[in-house]
Fold:
Amino acid sequence: MVVFRPAELTDRDAVLSLAVAFAASFSVEASAFDASFATLLQSPDAFVGVAAEADRIVGYLLGFDHYTFYANGRVAWVEEIMVAPDVRLHGVGRLLMENFEQWARSRCGKLIALATRRAEPFYRRLGYDASATYLRKLL
Structure:
């Protein structure tokens, strides 16, 4: 049975492994990951959750929220979500998203946004609609 829980420092290796598989445009560096992971676990505006099956981490979600003018309050953003390939289509992604949505609601969030390249059908099944074009500039 897969359960959700907040990430802990002891999840470092498992989350790093999933993050490496997630990163399509970048190469995840362990030292940068370590600094980010420890900082994010302590940040009040960051959500780092994992899906665990027995003693194995099978997915994670990294998200944030922040105040905005346009939405009259807080907006939450899914930055990364990754599920191990061998457990996809078993509700792990849904579990992670549901817990992120609960977190955003508990913080009086007005909306959740995200960017996706390959998972639009998944998000549409969860009730998400296309809203904007995602652009980026590498620094």
In short: The chain has a mean pLDDT of 93. The first strand starts at residue 2 and ends at 6. The chain has four helices and five strands. The CA atoms of residues 98 and 126 lie 9 Å apart.
